[in-house]
## 1
Amino acid sequence: MTGNVPDKSLPLLKVQNLSKFYGKNMGCHDINFELAEGEVIGVVGESGSGKSTLLKCIAGKINTTNGSVFFNSLYGFVDLCQCDELLLRQLTRTQIGYVTQNSVDGLRMNISAGGNIGERLMANGMRNYSQIRKIALEWLEKVEIETNRIDDLPTTFSGGMQQRLQIAANLVTDPKIILMDEPTSGLDVSVQARLIDVLRKLVSRLRLSMILVTHDLAVARMLSHRLYVMKEGKIVESGLSDQILDDPREPYTQLLVSSVLKP
Amino acid sequence: MSLQYNFAYLDEQSKKMIRRSILKAMAIPGFQVPFGGREMPLPYGWGTGGIQLTASLLGKEDCLKVIDQGSDDTTNAVSIKDFFKKTARIEITENTEDATIIQTRHRIPETPLTPQQIMVYQVPIPEPLQFIEPKRQENAKMHAFSEYGTMYVKLYEDIARHERIAMAFDYPVHVNGRYIMSPSPIPKFDNPKLHQSCAMHIFGAGREKRIYAVPPYTDVVSLDFEDYPFELEEWDESCAICGSDQTFLDEIITDDEGTRMFVCSDTEFCSRVRQKGKR
């Protein structure tokens, strides 16, 4: 199966009629969109609008109620909602990165920074210590963490550093798509700026494909090419980032944009 | 004592249940088989898993040896031997060659095992993945899907911190190319003895209620990195009592001035070598 070349005529990711219900409550409903390779999509909306639910469905972290998420992998155009668990776990381990809002959920806090970065490499069969070490050092440098911190535990890192470490740990296996759930929330502005800076560099250098969920419109504008606005579990507006933020059409989007405080 | 116990303490139904689990464990080397662990008249952590295995395996003709810390006469070993002497009235020995069942906590005897022998281990923590992933359900999935890469994170951490793999006991092994198994608290010195061993090795964890096994002639490979291979500890000294230089040595401090001596941890082997030397 490996060694197949993904079909270039298909999008990298295709979300089709995706719905998730928590009992009677709706998480998200009838979501449709496509993501091309090298594209960064932002999903914005207020808290409880279903952004994170959508992302968790795409990442295979929770079971969907209905619909499909097709992923153009080395194994063909697979539906992540239908494929068997073995394949899903393999894909999420190698080709899909997932950066959580709280780095505690995404990192192993009792294992050194180097170990955290190396974990995905070792999970993919790398059994050479020096090689793992070398790659870990390279990645620390890429996310602007001092390389002498490689043997320190993530608990000794600041929030921003933990988040950057989480990004490195996800990108180390060169995933085809990276999913980010509010990567900047909980960080103060200057730290946010640095994280966005690192992300922008990585996005342009590695041509990352990314889905970025955030409630921070400024972050969405800085990073994403296209935006989807969610309200009560549905997509209410979509389009180019600048277009949506400068000239919002829907009343809800207008409200969102006008609610941002300007110092 | 007026009270009459069933042969080897456990009732026949319980023994049958445990034997069934043993057969399953033998059929799937390294796989942890759950079993209905019984309450034993000693606390968890003192070898309840091993003692249940031994009780189910014992026949009237069997000869039992019990080792604790390599020694035949430490508290745990003596009390377990006493227990089976009372409840099963079987022959008890210290001689490794005579024993048909050997229950142990820390050591595999230095004397080579024979195909007629069964090793029974007392295991405190049967799950080798627990260090890296505390969730039980996730552990089960990792075993099921052979997702063992993360196990190497433990080795990585050791090398990063100590510049070598510093685990000295309970060193994880890959059994029959399939399951990763914790060989209980045996020193890594004894790991190679499990590989292609002609004897049967059965592991019992009483508190966690798991049984697993290494059948005779099974591949048992200790985990390592390409550039940091599995290594055995070595001593500069040889045993101060019998003079062996191939055995696992214990360091014993003999006075307040820091005088120390190194002696075999397997006391039965040590005394036999010394007897031979005298003759």
## 2
Amino acid sequence: MMRRLLDRFDRAFFAEAPAERLAILRLLVGGFALVYLCVRAVHLQRVGHLPPGSFRPIGVVSVLSAPLPLWAVRALIGGAIAAGAAFVAGYRFRVTGPLFSALLLWVLTYRNSWGMVFHTENLLVLHVIALSLGAAADALSLDARAARRAGVAPPAPDGRYGWPIRLFCAITVTSYFIAGVTKLRNSGLDWALSDILRNYVAYDNVRKIALGDTHSPLGGALVRYRFLFPPLALCSLAMELGAPLALFSRRIAVAFCGAAWLFHLGVLLTMAILFPYPLLGIAFAGFFELEKMRDLRRPRRAGPASRTGGRERLSQAREPL
Amino acid sequence: MSAGAGGEAAGTAAAGGGAAASAAAGGGARPGEGARWGERKVYAYGVTAGLVLLMLAPLFRRPPADSFPLSTYPMFSWGRHDARTAVERAIGVDSRGERRPIPPRLVGSEEVLQAKATLAQSIRQGARAARALCRGIAARVAEQDRYADVVKIEIRTDTFDAVAFFDGQEAPVDSKLHATCKVGAR
């Protein structure tokens, strides 16, 4: 019985996937990380202006006992951006993939080492690490182009392109599950059944107003309607604790992705807290057959000469999606 | 688009182990390919188990410690049964005595929570640290035309009833002044 279960798990974990699916995941996650680093570069190096007494190293940055000089912070951010470009392009990925994940981990951990640990980038870093340890550049990459020129045949669907995607999904659901367990541990079921969520929405908006930052007028207005919050809290907690089920069923995976996306939309609308990575859907991209996005483009290429044929292709392309 | 990876994990389980099957099936499989696939499996399981266990590890630490990127995601998880909210903040006071919040970027960070953490730390460290931060903020405020009317900076902790706040009771229910300093030569 146990043996059969393990065999089944093994087959599922190493189920074939096309190299393109993993490569598209690399492009999405790496592209997001690269743009994020570029957009936030000025802010990331500005931590150098915070009082040195505020330095509270965590994670990999714990090896430091004092802040780095500004030139080193800037050099590491620059290095991360360069390695990120190589990661996205799939250039010498066996080296640049792990290098980018290490530099991204360092740069973002350093940013979190000033007395305030943020939680908007955890999933991004873990996903980049997971992808950097798999064969994510065997397609849609400079490495793949070089291999083709050297006469290597395009890779066939294989288990080695499947397991990093399974890991990607496992990381996603584990992070939500941990958040749910922490709520239960710190507050019990009260978190979902009492005024806790309402108080948090009020608290978060008031402190933003008091600190002169952007707040959510909607969140402030909803605070008056006490009855709204326990159902919302219950749904959030159910989504988080039920997240691991998404690994075992296609339908549950779709429901989980939708619920988690709505959760982040709700957080944005009521607390003005933006989680761009999940809100853009990239955090959930591993649950989908990304290579089929290409099929969406095909009907547009069909000329007006064969209207009927065009419609047929359209329906064929949409059917499996 | 349909759910793939997660669902496929279950859906294609019966289809066999991908390359493992093709490698073992012989058709064109080279000697040693099965062993290589075995090594790959060990690597894949090692990486997967390692990362997932690392993620779960903070749940078992006592006391739980928040870190990055391994976290218990404790934000908004504590039993906040009370809507009272203490906010450490920097306030600008103009010549008429009117007060307005100094935005996070002038405290030292564009991130509101980072700015709040910086204020809270300086307050915890004592009057000297609070005064030093106050002077730093005053220097940055002095460079801003928008705050030309601000003559004094206060570092304070104001406590609000957050729910009542949105019913119009915006005044703090409690206040504590930690440091005050003049803005430039104005």
